Amino acid sequence: MERTASTVHSNELKGNRMKVEIWSDVVCPWCYIGKRRFEAALARFAHRDDVEITWRSFELDPTAPRRIPGSLNDMIAQKLGKTPDQAAALHAQLTTMAGREGLDYQLDKAQPGNTFDAHRLIHLAATYGLQGTMKERLLKAYFSDGLSIGDPNTLVEIAAEVGLDAQEARAMLDSNDYADDVHADEQRAAAFGIRGVPFVAIDEKYGISGAQPSDLFLEALEQAWAESHPLTMVSAADGTNVCEGDACDLPGQDTN
Questions:
Q1: pTM over 0.90
Q2: Which of 110, 166, 174, 199 could disulfide-link 160, Cβ–Cβ 3.0 to 4.6 Å?
């Protein structure tokens, strides 16, 4: 039977925790920048220990071959109708922005290709509680290390680095395991009207599109938390022992 993430683990939340879903692709430069900005916001969020993050699959180009010939500059130049030099200038700007977030983009070494198997690997890692670790490693592999994330051998090596069993990862990649999970994530994105990434959904109520500043992410987290955790008033029925305006209820005062 084809294996899916839902058959071996559940992302259902316990208690009244905050649910954050993040759609992104491992070859999306804004997704890595957005990840760092969201993490910076989360580090400042008072209730960060009560936040559960689920990384959702999103393929920017599901039709791409495992390895797209040529450089990333060539690919972007062709897609945007620019010269390779113009594409390189755009990538230089992205590299500078990524550097401000502590990321080391080496886009001249990037090997663009299909990301479907990489997303399946993230779902496999999720069954061992390593989803976030795998997501981070794949992004670094593509943007900093110049690794081919469409190559099964490379993915097996990355899986072993993260702590998964290499043979299990190889067997998964040779099968159709977790394909349904990838498609389910993408169908969920379509149902929400998500057309681009990164996209952050908080408690299925707040949607944030793009690699927004960390302050905006923090504001959204705080607003969502306040609305999902309203204050319940518990006080004496007669309203004693309080101050209102410039008047206070004093001990021994006759309130009749």
A1: no
A2: 166
